[in-house]
Amino acid sequence: MLLFGARAGDILGRRRMVVAGLTVTLIGMAWLSRLSADSPYLTGIALPMVLIGIGQGAALSPLTAGIAGGAPEDAGAASGLVNVAHQLGGSLRLGILLTVFAATGSGTLSAHELLAHRVSQPRSPPAPPCSPLSSR
Length: 136
Hints:
By secondary structure, the chain is mainly α. The chain is built from 5 helices and no strands. Helix 1 crosses helix 2 (14-32) and helix 2 packs antiparallel against helix 3.
């Protein structure tokens, strides 16, 4: 896969490789958003996650190479910056998702159905506490 990514990056160029990778990631995310309680594992979770992984690999490799393509003495700092940004993004994403999922609950669905429902529904910001839409 590494050789394929390097050759594709040489043929397509870094910018097109990043766009292609993000497009594949978007397709995987859109497919994963269609998850329901009755979805089989292979087509509901495994294949979309494979697409997301391929897309992320295709997008992150040229970004890292582009940043590390600067001065040789700055390569270590550039690599560290990419890794820190990736880790912070993942941590923030997880924190936000857990906050949103914890804020919405259901007394009528099982845990399996509730997870499938929460993953497949688009999120909107919560209503302010003083609005007529709030339940307080």
